[in-house]
Design brief:
Chain B: One of its GO terms (biological process) is choline transport. The structure holds 2 protein chains of 2 kinds. By secondary structure, chain A is an alpha/beta fold. Chain A is built from 14 helices and 13 strands. Chain B contains 29 helices and no strands. Classes of the chains: A alpha/beta, B mainly alpha.
């Protein structure tokens, strides 16, 4: 992890958000370490975000995952102070957000960070094109210019020909494409997604996830993605932070979470994830036994386990797992079958 | 024997629930019999309180032009409002009847297409046919000035209250009191500060009509989807940008209801404002009322109703244009009791072609048609006479008076029977009871009832109001007014419950009744005095009858809506358990509609009081008559002023007692000891 703030798109350090009239007093006392339920009973305050720190690298898709009430939506709103944080430091592109004046904060929201919302937040009295151009309009961009830009973005998200429709004439998935286009139109460096697809039905959701992956490839924005859906998190997230009761309980890649859950809460979460779809050969390869033939097929350590099955069944010899030029280990059919049978094979931790 | 007593004697004696109230009643009855006739507070026309106010007025009239408060502040307000009224009046006169008809038609076409335009054109022409062109225009100018001021002040306050919960909490109690103040109560203080005439009338109308402007605007703003607001903020919009680009456009259709409601309130007030010499149709109506001549007031009444209907349909079409799309979250939120006047109109408006396409901008045809209509009207100004030609009017005074006389004589046995029955069996005994009982006994009784029904705070407020009434020297008349209100409310609630339950149980009956209720709620209050006067002449019962037909529609609507709001699953569950329809009503629907029924009672009381006070014009006597007297006799100004305050106190008292009942005992709370 790079410590210099300049190398990270977003740095969050010791962030707290406590709701309630006595928030500051709670924050200053030892009460802040109480369990949320106990705290609410004692002080009437609700701790939504508790001492959260993380960094998002430029161009990364960073997913925050947690059940409802875990504080993830509050967390993402604190990043641009849509909700005022109680304590802690937030830097976006090296700039201290907490110290920004209202005018500067507006500038940041206008040009650097934009957001996509769960319930879309479209303006029903405006046409699609004017919804997309809204961010540009409040920056003061002339009508012709902003419509031209909005038109480009509309075709980017696949809404050609819907410019003059009104939001309520579109399906839910299309409405969220408008939301996405609105966020993209201002050409931000960072995009925040607050459970953008949880109001959509499963098929549309899959389309939209693919859309985000495609957009990320094409425009390369830094993205912070909030979700309560584990499969969504695993699909999109380069790194995933799991939140519970306001704190991050584990932060890592999908592989790290599934391979080495930090506690019972996380392992409970990932229990139903087919591990062969997430883990790579790195997690199950072993040192070759003496006399084992090493002339079998080769695969890189980053191969997903399920993708190795075809090769393993075609060849009688153990697969050589290589990390660059070096031999990392071998995997044979028995290893794979044992793993797939779901017996709790100890995987190598922290590979 | 001894064994049974031993068994049935628990450590604490269990008193049946009815013992305490019955005991209290017996106690009060005994006290009444013992102290009857003592401690009464008979009315004294020359009471020092009244004289003091009369003197104050004399002093103010003498110093109106040298006291700094008047010279530098109040007189300027008066001048400004007067100027605004003159501006409207001059413009409308300059348009003349052809111009006004054309312009109104054009506006109506823009608002809601050709049907509304036709309505507006025929409505405006009706003023002329009724021979009331000039006073209608005066009334229109007065309403325009008052509504403009109401909106100019009310909408910003409403927006503020919609955005800030703290502001809302501060404003709500003020609005609550303003809405239970009877129309009459506003007049005397305004006459004191702003003299009499059009400016004072416009200010009175403005104050009376401002609560819905504030309340509905606040509601509209607070209903705006928070996600849209947040999305706007997340893109870096300033508060101002969010207000003008998100809040106001999204609140627009509900705010059109606010404008509509403000106009309706203003229309009922401009008539009453004639008592402080505001010009317009009110003159004929007040004259007709005070002379018991239906023939004089009927055309003016019709003109006001026509004006109300035209303006209501126009505003409702504007509101409908936005809400047809369905992006108003709580569509029914603004349609509270007494504010649902336009429901029927909206249904009708949505049928017109333009409304079926959501987001339909005005078509070119509509624009052209409206333009042509306005142009024709304006072009005819120089050609046709400005004032409606005398020969085109229809004079019906004599015919109407004859018809009323015929009705009075023909139905005399029936109406007299009803009147005498109510007077002898309800009014007289209750009035005797209240006025002959010692004041402290009545106060104690009210305190006890308020405490039991609503709790400590309302009881203390009621006590304060009653003591103030006694100190003001209006005790006897207040008791008489209270008698009238009590009888009217009793009848109103009985009728309202019966009709409401009937409508809730039979969709067919409800479909017949709804349009009638809608129409009834669009009409200005005093219109109801018309049939009452025609049937019962000037008696106490006239006011009661008028307030019953005035207050029944909202009560029926609230009861019906309350019963219909009972969740279908609950009704289904009760039916599947084998309930009869009667059991369903008594054990499920009525108990669950409790809140709505209590609200209906509260509304009924407030509306009845307002009407009973206006009924002072047609023989209801007591406080209402005192107020009227205060305006007609200069020496009695103090009496009228104080009587106005007493009606407000009475209103606050009755409202708190019943509203407390609404808030307090939800079934859940009742369970806990």
């Amino acid at each position: 992890m790079g410590d210099s703030p300049d190398s990270a798109a977003i740095t969050v350090e010791g962030l707290w958000k406590i709701f309630g009239s006595r928030a500051q007093r709670v924050l200053d006392s030892e009460d802040r370490h109480l369990e949320p339920a106990t705290l609410r009973e004692k002080t009437g305050c609700t701790a939504a975000v508790r001492d959260v720190s993380f960094e998002v690298r430029p161009g990364e898709v960073f997913v925050v995952m947690g059940l409802s009430g875990s504080g993830k939506s509050t967390l993402v709103r604190c990043l641009t102070r849509l909700i005022e944080p109680s304590a802690g430091e937030i830097r976006i592109g090296g700039e201290d957000i907490g110290r920004a004046s209202p005018a500067r904060l507006r500038e940041i929201r206008r040009h650097q960070v934009s957001m996509v919302f769960q319930h879309f937040g479209l303006l029903p009295h405006r046409k699609v094109i004017d919804n997309v151009a809204y961010g540009l309009e409040i920056q003061g961009m002339p009508r012709a210019a902003r419509h031209a830009r909005a038109g480009e973005i509309l075709s980017l998200v696949g809404l050609d020909g819907y410019a003059d429709a009104y939001p309520d004439q579109l399906s839910g998935g299309m409405q969220q494409r408008v939301g996405l286009a609105r966020a993209l139109a201002v050409d931000p460096q960072v995009m925040l997604f607050d459970e953008p697809f949880s109001a959509l039905d499963p098929l549309i959701r899959r389309d939209m996830q693919a859309e985000v992956i495609r957009l990320h490839r094409e425009v390369g924005k830094t993205m912070v993605f909030i979700t309560h859906d584990l499969s969504e998190a695993l699909k999109l997230g380069e790194r995933i932070a799991i939140m519970r009761a306001g704190s991050i309980v584990q932060l890592g890649t999908a592989e790290e979470l599934v391979g080495a859950p930090a506690d019972d809460y996380v392992s409970d979460f990932i229990r139903d994830v087919p591990r062969s779809h997430v883990l790579t050969l790195r997690w199950i390869c072993r040192d070759p036994e003496p006399g084992e033939p090493l002339d079998g097929p080769e695969l890189p350590v980053t191969t997903i386990i399920k993708d190795a099955i075809g090769l393993a069944s075609a060849s009688g010899r153990p697969i050589k797992v290589v990390d660059g030029d070096q031999l990392a280990g071998v995997v044979d059919r028995v290893d794979l079958l044992t793993f797939l049978s779901g017996q709790d094979v100890p995987v190598k931790a922290g590979a | 024997m001894s064994s049974t007593t031993a068994v049935s004697a628990p450590p604490r004696v269990k008193v049946p629930r009815w013992v305490a109230p019955v005991g209290a009643v017996v106690l009060f009855a005994a006290a009444y019999l013992a102290f009857r006739g003592t401690g009464t507070l008979p009315h004294d026309k020359e009471a020092p309180q009244f004289l003091a106010v009369t003197e104050l007025r004399e002093w103010i009239d003498d110093h109106r032009n040298d006291n700094p408060l008047f010279l530098y502040f109040l007189n300027y307000i008066r001048l400004f409002v007067g100027g605004l009224y003159d501006l409207f009046q001059t413009t409308l006169y300059a348009l003349g009847w052809p111009g006004l008809t054309g312009v109104m038609g054009a506006l109506a076409w823009l608002a809601g297409g050709w049907r509304i335009a036709l309505l507006a054109v025929s409505g405006v022409s009706a003023f002329g046919f009724l021979g009331l062109w000039q006073s209608s225009v005066d009334t229109l100018a007065l309403v325009a000035a008052a509504v403009l001021l109401s909106l100019a002040i009310g909408i910003p306050i409403g927006v503020w209250a919609g955005l800030s919960a703290r502001a809302r909490r501060a404003i709500t109690p003020v609005l609550d009191v303003m809405q239970i103040m009877p129309t009459f109560a506003y007049l005397a203080p305004l006459a004191l500060f702003f003299h009499i005439g059009a400016p004072a009338g416009a200010i009175a109308t403005m104050i009376y009509s401002i609560p819905p402007a504030i309340r509905i605007t606040a509601l509209a703003i607070s209903e705006v989807s928070p996600t849209a607001v947040e999305a706007s903020a997340s893109l870096g919009a300033t508060r101002r940008q969010t207000l003008f680009k998100v809040y106001l456009p999204l609140a627009r259709s509900t705010m059109a209801l606010a404008v509509n409601q403000t106009i309706m309130m203003a229309l009922s007030m401009v008539v009453i404002a004639n008592l402080i010499s505001a010009p317009g149709l009110g003159g004929d109506i007040i004259r007709g009322l005070s002379r018991a001549q239906v023939g004089i007031m009927l055309p003016a009444g019709v003109a006001i109703v026509v004006m109300a209907v035209v303006l209501d349909r126009m505003m409702m079409s504007v509101a409908q244009r936005g809400s047809a799309v369905g992006w108003r979250s709580g569509g029914s939120g603004a349609t509270r009791a007494g504010e649902g006047g336009g429901a029927g109109a909206t249904e009708r408006a949505s049928r017109s072609a333009a409304m079926n396409r959501p987001h339909a901008k005005l078509s070119r045809i509509d624009l052209v048609a409206a333009g042509v209509l306005a142009a024709v009207g304006l072009a005819l100004i120089p050609v046709l006479p400005r004032v409606w030609p005398e020969s085109w009017t229809i004079n019906v005074v004599a015919e109407v008076n004859d018809a009323v006389r015929w009705a009075e004589t023909t139905w005399y046995p029936v109406t007299t029977f009803i009147k005498d029955l109510v007077t002898a069996s309800l009014l007289n005994p209750l009035e005797t009871l209240l006025t002959s009982a010692p004041w402290w006994l009545v106060t104690l009784a009210v305190l006890a009832v308020a405490w039991r029904v609503s709790g400590v705070r309302p009881a203390l407020i009621a006590l304060g109001c009653l003591l103030a009434i006694a100190l003001l020297g209006t005790w006897e008349h207040a008791m008489q007014t209270m008698t009238t209100v009590a009888v009217a409310v009793l009848v109103t609630l009985v009728i309202g419950l019966l009709l409401g339950v009937a409508a809730a149980r039979s969709p067919r009956y409800s479909a017949v009744q709804r349009p009638l209720l809608d129409a009834a709620q669009t009409m200005p209050a005093f219109v109801y005095l018309l049939p009452a006067l025609a049937l019962f002449e000037t008696t106490r019962f006239t006011a009661i009858f008028a307030s019953i037909i005035y207050a029944v529609p909202p009560v029926v609507r609230l009861v019906e809506d309350g019963i219909k709001a009972v969740p279908a699953t609950v009704v289904e569950a009760a039916s599947s358990a084998g309930s009869t329809r009667g059991q369903l009503l008594w054990k499920v629907q009525l108990p669950m509609a409790r809140q709505a029924i209590l609200l209906a009672a509260n509304q009924g009381i407030v509306m009845t009081l307002a009407m009973v006070v206006v009924g002072g014009l047609v023989g209801a006597g007591a406080l209402g008559y005192d107020v009227v007297l205060g305006f007609s006799q200069r020496t009695d100004f103090g009496l009228g002023f104080v009587a106005g305050i007493a009606t407000v106190l009475l209103g606050v008292m009755l409202d708190r007692i019943t509203q407390g009942a609404d808030r307090r005992s939800s079934p859940r709370k009742r369970k806990s000891p």
